[in-house]
Amino acid sequence: MEATTFTKQGLGIVESTALGYDQKIRALAGLAVSALPYPALSPACAAALEDRVICDMFEGNRPVSPRYVLPDYRKALHNGLTYLELDPPQDLDEALMFLTVLYGHVPSVTTYPVYVGHLDSLLEPYVPEDMSDDELDARLRRFWIMMDRLCPDGFTHANVGPRDGRVIRSIWRVERALRQTVPNLTLCVDPDVTPDDLLLDAVETTFVTAKPHYVNHPMMVEDHGGPDYGVVSCYNALNVGGGSHTLVRVNLQKAAERHEGDLESFLADALPHWVELTCELGEARIRSLVEDSGFFKSHFLVTEGLVSLDRFGAMFGIFGLAECVNTFMEREGRAEARYGLDDGANLASYRITERIAELVAARPVAYCEGFHGRMYMHSQSGIDLDLDATAGTRIPVGEEPGVREHIAAVAPHHRLFPSGISDIFAIEETVTRNPQAMVDIIKGALGYGMRDFTWNLDNNEFIRITGYLVRKSDIASFEDHGGARHSSDLLAGTAERNHSVLTRRVKVVEANPLVTAPA
Amino acid sequence: MTRSVPPPRPATPVGDPVGLATLGEVAGTIEFSCVDGPGNRFVVFLQGCNLNCLFCHNPQTIPRRGGRTTSVDDLLAKIRLAAPFLSGVTVSGGEATQQPEFLRHLFVALAEDPATQHLTRFIDTNGDAYPEVWDYLEPVFEAAMVDLKAIDNDLHRRLTGHGNERILRSIRLLAQRDRLYEVRLILAAGTNDSDEILRSTGEWLASVDPHMRIRVNTYRHHGVRRAARGLVSPTDEDRERYAARLSAIADFRIQVV
């Protein structure tokens, strides 16, 4: 980086009124990392990175810690922590204090923990039978407020389910009462284990807070070799006791624009080129992290066995699939065939993602023992700076078809992305009078092969930007109020200006007016 | 709010000759509806209605002709696509019971097809059907939702063009057979929403079933004919009064929308 640019950006951070003190310190640290030398890349790889056809998510030139870390909290609670001088907790209050302290020491790319555990199954053993619901709620309420204020970031993510229990029911009550954006929340759904009544309670919670995400537990168990996976950050599924070293991604819109030819030659020639360069970029960053940063040699999470290198992988992201498909349709003289709305365009999209998955599966990458020595496929939901290109494999905002056609169009992609894929459905608020209708749709979507079903009500004060939540009022006001309290609100402000994500097409699940539905 | 969804009944052989009335006049379909019975439902609107309600919000479905002639197989193909996401199918109108043979064939087909046999089969009706029609449909449906436009026969006649004797009989008959999912009132301010009318309506409904599920639809201008524009939409205050007056009469399960 040029010294003048460094100085200019540094002063911009120091003098900002939109950043709080803590956010300034973290931003300055990020700037410092950007001044360090990048791991060695081939000229072709460096050029592709410079042109942003491939992208490193601005993680910083020199990896300091893995991007996403999923400590084995169960093991920590069971064994205690030598480094932090914490004995195994004996009751619920001690367990909540133990986790609070530990969260403060879990690194990630956001500098806050992106995974806070499967909180219902972690905490259930500490809830005595004679503790009333009110006592339980009061404790979880304080814990929830603590998470939001100490980890003020929409990527801080808790998991619950698939089983019913007292803690998960209390979490729904606390969520509805507090209406916080933190933590992000995923409900693991297993149709054989998760009762409808629990899903109804979850749906009533989503009506109020736009949380949780609903994920396909049997599909995750199958792809991750068992139930020890966690959904973290936006909707990234990774091994508990491991995580992801890095996330690199291909801009399929740019890849298509740079390819002079049809879809067949894109699949045969262009994709292998970009996939190889992306894997090279990922591998260079992984080697720097694992071999040079010292994280895997000395961090207490490693030395005390709460994460291990062989549970780590790395994520291969794609985005801009919609624009990529539409580009090739236009070249075939079928400009009217739009991704998400046309069967031919949809079939082309499946060929593209299947080809990428095949290429990624054929390319060994160092230190990815957590996933067969290969990178995880990930449908990357975008960052605040993306212009034009649609998130991941999503249908462009405003062009989405009806709910069923939408699910039918995107579901075939879901099996290909074990580390996460999401499509967001904005549902008309009439459905609040009939929560069972939402349960039907969620179960139907997961049964149809969706890995993740994420939805929120239109007119909800909460909105999902890429996969994390913000309150509309927080985005609207932070520049006038001396700093956004959540660091993710800053990203959301830019994403909204660049993407109009607040105007997502609303899905009507209603009977009238009849005139809109000819036979 | 009732949350349990009744399980579909097993298909009961009805012995109709194959091919009879497998064509119907269909005004439209909606793949996903959350306002036509329990859970998410596919809704079939049949063309043609025997009443002529002033405040009908789908007046184009009243004439016998004007829909699209549609086969059971065509409808079944559409419903199969949506079936994984549904609790059931509701046939509405127009008036569903005006095409009983078609309705019965559709429901038999739904009950027999492996892709749709998990779906409950509901009828959304104005109730103006002879007991013989309910007998004929008895083996093929789970429950009905019945509209009641006015408890007073004269007022009913003024609002719909017909008396309400058959409708009241249908409500009682369906309740006796445990096939009544809910009764729907549609109230317009100053027309059929006085305390006196609410009391007589509530008392009669309580005599049928004191735990009845009642949905109060409030009149809205949306979609109605010009003749109905003089009707007045109830206020939030009115809505609260409806719920309060009806609740005072019996332990109804009331939803005011």
What is the number of helices of chain B?
A: 7
Mean pLDDT of chain B: 91
- The class by helix and strand makeup of chain B works out as alpha/beta
Major sheet of chain A: 7 strands, mixed
- Percent of residues in helices of chain B: 25-40%
Largest interface (CB < 8 Å):
A-B, 33 and 38 residues
Q: What is the tally of helical segments of chain A?
A: 20
Quantity of strands of chain B, as a count: 9
Distance between the termini of chain A: 62 Å
Whole-angstrom Rg of chain B: 18 Å
Total beta-strand segments of chain A: 16
| General shape of chain B | globular
| N-to-C span of chain B | 13 Å
Strands of the largest sheet of chain B, in order across it?
3-1-2-4-5-6-7-8-9
pLDDT < 50 stretches of chain B? none
Topology as H/E string of chain B? EEEHEHEHEHHEHEHE
Q: Which range does the strand content of chain B fall in?
A: 15-25%
Category from helices, strands and their pairing of chain A: alpha/beta
Q: Tell me the overall shape of chain A.
A: globular
State the assembly state of the protein chains: heterodimer
Q: In a few lines, what is going on in this structure?
A:
The complex is a heterodimer of chains A (519) and B (257). With 519 residues, chain A is of the alpha/beta class. Chain A contains 20 helices and 16 strands.
Would you give an account of this structure?
The complex is a heterodimer of chains A (519) and B (257). Chain A has 20 helices and 16 strands. With 519 residues, chain A is α/β, with parallel strands linked by helices. In chain A, the strands form four sheets. Chain A has a seven-stranded mixed β-sheet with strand order 3-4-5-6-13-12-16. In chain A, strands 1, 2, 9, 10 and 11 form a five-stranded mixed β-sheet that branches. A two-stranded antiparallel ribbon of chain A has the order 7-8. In chain A, β5 (184-189), α9 and β6 form a beta-alpha-beta unit. Chain A is globular and about 70 Å long. Chain A starts with a helix and ends in a 12-residue tail after the last strand. The model of chain A is unreliable at 508-519 (pLDDT under 50). Chain B is of the alpha/beta class. Chain B is 31% helix and 22% strand. Chain B has helices at 72-82, 100-112, 131-137, 153-160, 165-176, 195-208, 236-249, and strands at 23-33, 41-46, 68-71, 88-92, 120-125, 143-148, 180-187, 213-218, 253-256. Chain B contains seven helices and nine strands, in the order βββαβαβαβααβαβαβ. The radius of gyration of chain B is 18 Å and the shape is globular. The mean pLDDT of chain B is 91. In chain B, β4, α2 and β5 (120-125) form a beta-alpha-beta unit. In chain B, α1 crosses α2. Classes of the chains: A alpha/beta (519), B alpha/beta (257). Chains A and B meet through α17 and α18 of A and β1 and β2 of B.
